């Protein structure tokens, strides 16, 4: 038990040293890390859209009755997961927009400010592109989604787009 206590104390010290060191990393490192997280989320979202497309293409009406009952159940679940990921990606974009606005405000006080909006614009364009692809898949699958789920999804879609446009 004493050995475990000593090893734990050493590991806690190492953890504290790493955390202390990471707080002093350059801002570009944190920005790059955030950009990678967004890219990964966007790729995951694009993969979901392709999965929905493949499920719709291979869904009911093909290969007999064995696949037919499973496809309508899986499709709404897959679409809901994709919409949730779309909303998470939207939150990341809105967070970056808020950071940019705050940096612009602080620039009035003499703080360094990077005025380049190209990365932020690229994020928005990529997100809106995936948004329209997903919305197209949802509209194409409207018969499988049912009358209660489709209006909720369309409302969530309009909220995503309106919040992006307003900000």
From TrEMBL:
Keywords: SH2 domain. Residues 81-140 form the STAT transcription factor all-alpha domain. SUPFAM superfamilies: STAT (SSF47655). GO terms for molecular function: DNA-binding transcription factor activity. GO terms for biological process: signal transduction. The keyword Transport does not apply. InterPro entries: STAT, STAT_TF_alpha, STAT_TF_CC. The keyword Metal-binding does not apply. This is STAT6 protein.
